[in-house]
Write a structure and sequence with these properties.
This protein has eleven helices and nine strands. It has a five-stranded parallel β-sheet. The chain has a four-stranded parallel β-sheet with strand order 2-1-3-4. It starts with 16 loop residues before the first helix and ends with a helix. The site of phosphoric acid mono(formamide)ester has 9 residues, from helix 2.
Length: about 300
């Protein structure tokens, strides 16, 4: 019997296949229930706190939507500037304080390890909504849910991950989950933005086939799915290096024609220029369906963590 009751969600590597299957099942049930009614009462009386020290549109709003669709309440800190972090309060003290108000805490912060610090300080379960260039495990779960829905299976897939693999917390978490399904991985990036060596070597130790390349077309031709990511300007200390690599990979309709095959395209969003808007109407462009799936997966996580599923 799978239980996530009381657990923190901090890293992609914490999940087993059984836990992922359970999250997918609960998310799918909620998706069906929301087709029948607008909201449920499962988490009535429970409070979610969202602490965002970095910008967000999808993660914060989908967590807040998920909690409200489940009948719970939300308290929110939308920026570091509007909280006592601006006066120098630590993440641990902030978490210890919010712990007095909320039943579950979602945190995004620019520093790797910050969500773990919050989890160590709070009694309530803490969910990592992105810790700098570290991890973004709930994004990875919604990506897995989307892949299952779009492709019908998670088995024997070939996936190209493209863009800023060095700083991309979404891809760092996603490869942990994909490694449980034996996925063949193509890492496509400029040399300076390669996937961190410790992640690549751990995957290889687990027997996962990993191909590292700078060529997107070659990898895409061999893949069932392209997972596009943004080159993250905000993570560059040296902006001249950003200028050198920005625009390295762009999917437009001409590129899709060259592939001569149907391919699924995901992106955690936001995008800058790496997927042209003309691609949005291509049937395999699933990134806005991926956004919607975030609600169901986050509903599943909140319900499971709070012991209601
Ligand atoms: N995918 C994602 O994390 O989006 P936001 O930065 O808008 O939350």
């Amino acid at each position: 019997m799978v239980s996530l009751k009381g657990k923190d969600i901090l890293h992609g590597n914490q999940f087993s296949r059984k836990e992922i299957d359970a999250v997918i099942k609960v998310a799918s049930d909620f998706e069906k229930e929301l087709k029948k009614k607008d909201s449920l009462t499962l988490l009535k009386g429970k409070i979610l706190a969202t602490l965002f020290f970095e910008p967000s549109t999808r993660t914060r709003l989908s967590f807040e939507t998920a909690m409200q669709r489940l009948g719970g309440g939300v308290i929110s800190m939308a920026s570091a500037e509007s909280s006592s972090a601006a006066k120098g309060e630590t993440v641990a003290d902030t978490a210890r304080t919010v712990d007095q108000y909320a039943d579950v805490i979602v945190i995004r912060h620019p520093r790797i390890g910050s969500a773990k610090e919050a989890a160590d300080a709070a009694q309530a379960p803490v969910i990592n909504a992105g810790d700098g260039a570290g991890q973004h495990p709930t994004q990875a779960l919604l990506d897995i849910y989307t892949i299952q829905k779009e492709l019908g299976s998670l088995k024997s897939l070939k996936v190209s991950l493209v863009g800023d693999l060095k700083n991309g917390r979404t891809v760092h978490a996603l490869v942990e989950l994909l490694s449980l399904f034996g996925t063949r991985l193509y890492f496509v990036s400029p040399e300076s933005l390669r996937m961190p060596e410790e992640i690549t070597s751990q995957l290889k130790q687990k027997g996962i086939e990993v191909v590292e390349t700078g060529e997107m077309k070659e990898a895409a031709l061999a893949s069932d799915l392209i997972y596009m990511t943004r080159i993250q300007k905000e993570r560059f200390g040296d902006l001249s290096e950003y200028e050198r690599v920005k625009g390295s990979y762009i999917i437009g309709s001409e590129f899709l024609k060259k592939l001569k095959k149907k391919i699924t395209i995901l992106h955690p969003l936001p995008r800058v220029d790496e997927i042209s808007q003309e691609v949005d109407s291509y049937p395999g462009a699933a990134y806005f369906r991926q956004v919607r799936n975030g609600i169901f997966v986050r509903m599943a996580l909140l319900a499971m963590i709070l012991g209601k599923r």
